[in-house]
Amino acid sequence: MSYSLKVGHLYGDLMNTYGDIGNILVLKHLAKEMGVELDDEVVSLDQPFDKDKYDIVIFGGGQDFEQSIISKDIQTKKTDLIDFIEDGGSMVAICGGYQLLGHYYIGANGEKLEGIGALDHYTEKQENHRFIGDVLIENQETGEKYRGFENHQGITFLGEGERPLGNVLEGYGNNGEDKTEGAIYKNVYCTYFHGPILARNNQIAKHVLMNALSRKYPDADLTTQKETSSFRNILKIKPNKKAFDIKVESFCYPRFDSLINV
Ligand SMILES: NC(=O)CC[C@H](N)C(=O)O
Fold first, then answer.
1. For residue 102, which of 19, 174, 193, 13 has the smallest C-alpha distance?
2. Cβ neighbours of 245 (radius 10 Å)
3. Looking at 95, 152, 190, 207, which residue is catalytic?
4. Where are the alpha helices (DSSP H) in 63-117?
5. Which residues does UniProt mark as catalytic (predicted)?
6. What is the CA radius of gyration of the chain?
7. In ligand 1, which atom is closest to the CA atom of 60?
8. Where are the domains of the chain?
9. CA–CA dist 101, 172 (Å, integer)
10. Which of 30, 57, 105, 199 reaches 20 to 30 Å from 24, CA-CA?
């Protein structure tokens, strides 16, 4: 049995601050280790989002100017993106991308940019201030700790059905008030973390890959895959048709020079 995954890099030509594109290199690297073929393509302005084509969507961060253009274009992709998310599609949305998945984002100049309301959060404006610096959070469900770098003026408040990616131990997070950072909804991971997040936090990359594989191959027995891949020392995977229970056994930090040739 061979496995393949397709990544849609949403507005990858416009939204890519602090090397967010590195998230795709990490997915490629880890997928290759697992024996899974993974390729990616950019889905940008004036292009339809084909919800049946992609297994994983990466939506990076960006400046207010790019966000104002995307805010309009993304309305044409809204229905398909919502269908993709509701159907359990995997997504990682960072900073500006995270903001536009919610109801709205108020830019630094006070302009209100419409999101698609796929997730129930909204993002207000800070007065002449940005949250900049390193962040450390802890996910309450897994106990995993994640590290990242944040730089945003928007302050985000979570809504119905969303759980935070983690509770803030150091740094600001979503809004500097309620100690939440990021959001998880179905198989969507949202965050303010650049870094890129998946390079600094391999556990999340593995969750994303396994969620995507279990959705695409619900009846597959990944035991063979597990035995032949270097994942066997890292993940304990209990196949259970709908979802795989993943336990991180050790932390592996891929070196960028080993990612470049993937
Ligand atoms: N790094 C980002 O993606 C920034 C997002 C947004 N422009 C803000 O300042 O809040």
1. 174
2. 11
3. 95
4. 64-73, 78-86, 96-101
5. 95 (nucleophile), 194
6. 17
7. 3
8. 3-259
9. 20
10. 105
Q: Give helix 202-216 / helix 22-34 axis angle, nearest 10°.
A: 60
How confident is the model over 148-178, as pLDDT tens digits?
A: 999 999 999 999 999 999 999 999 999 999 9
Give CA torsion, residues 51, 111, 99, 67, to 10 deg.
50
Q: Render pLDDT for 63-85 as a digit per residue (tens, 0 to 9).
A: 999 999 999 999 999 999 999 99
Considering only CA atoms, which residue is closest to atom 8 of ligand 1? 152
The fold of 3-259 is: Rossmann fold (3.40.50)
Range 131-149 average pLDDT: 94
68 lines ligand 1 (CB under 6 A): no
Is 121 a catalytic site residue? no
Q: Is 96 in the pocket of ligand 1 (CB under 6 A)?
A: yes
